[in-house]
Amino acid sequence: MKKIEHIGIAVKNLEDSNKLFSKLFGKDHYKTEVVESEGVKTSFFKVGKNKIELLEATNEESPIAKFIEKKGEGVHHIAFDVKDINTEVERLKKEDFVVLNDTPKKGADNKLVVFLHPKSTNGVLIELCQEIKK
Fold it and tell me: Which residues form the VOC domain (predicted)?
């Protein structure tokens, strides 16, 4: 793993949360994007070298909707940038981590993503990210 790529925060209302975090960070978000396959609308902020991703559910079956219903708004996941997502998935499976999606899928911000189950990572949902080469 190369670095923390971003921290994902589940929110009920993206527009209201963008205003709140704009005040907090002293700058506006730089990008919004809908990821239909995950039922989520995202917004990204850059804070120094770090990124914060706000996530709003676009439907009631979205993992974000279920998260908020169960736990409320807050930190949803920590994402790590990896050099080779397939190699990293195989390595982590050998180390007995529970991988939620064996095959990387397209996520927000031009990334391939795989998630590790929180039960195998001390209660923290971990996302692995690899930039999609153009």
Answer: 3-131
Q: Strand ranges (DSSP E) for 12-82?
A: 31-35, 40-47, 50-57, 74-81
User: Could you report the per-residue pLDDT of 12-29, keeping only the tens digit for each?
Assistant: 999 999 999 999 999 999
Angle at 116 between CA 119 and CA 12, to 5 degrees: 85
Please count the CA atoms within 13 angstroms of the CA of 57 that sit on its side-chain side: 16
- Give dist(CA 79, CA 27) in Å, integer: 22
Q: Which tens digit of pLDDT belongs to each residue from 93-102?
A: 999 999 999 8
Full-model pTM: 0.92
> Quick one: CA dihedral 98, 104, 106, 108, positive or negative?
positive
pLDDT for 32: 97
Pure H helices in 1-134: 14-25, 63-71, 85-94
